[in-house]
Amino acid sequence: MPSKKKAAKTKSPPTSLKGWQQIASFLGQPVNVAQRWAKSGMPIVRVGRFVAASAADLNSWLGREAGGEPLHVATEQGDLSADLKRGLSYLKRHKHKNRGH
Q: Per the CB 3.0–4.6 Å rule, which of 24, 55, 87, 96 could disulfide with 34?
């Protein structure tokens, strides 16, 4: 009997998050924090009595809330080394700009 090999599951980050639990999980926060952030302007869409959000919209919003610094939620599939390099590059650019002030 031939053995069946299971293909490695590679989950891509969801582009559309449905419900408070998925949104909060994406943000790495409890549901009540996600709900509070939504009241203060976090981009969500109400679909009847349910809520949904775009991962890209949430990352953009987080960046604006962080004062324009590059920011996004890390996922298991994300390239953290590339994110770190991008962040360090941002800091170096702004450190040189601020020296003149």
A: 24
> What pLDDT, on a 0 to 100 scale, did the predictor assign at position 59?
85
The whole model's pTM is what? 0.56
Tokens 């998925």 locate to: 22
Beta strand pairing call for 16-18 and 45-47: unpaired
Torsion angles phi and psi, residue 89, rounded to 5: -60, -40
Structural domain for 57, as ranges: 16-69+77-99
Residue 40 domain-assigned (yes or no)? yes
Integer Cα distance of 55 and 17 in angstroms: 7
Predicted local confidence at residue 12, as pLDDT: 47
What is each CA distance from 3 to 6, 39, 91, in whole angstroms?
10, 52, 52
pLDDT at 14: 54
Structure token pair of residue 95:
């450190």
Other CB atoms within 10 A of residue 12 CB: 7
Q: Could you tell me if residue 8 is inside a domain?
A: no
* CATH number, domain with residue 57: 1.10.10
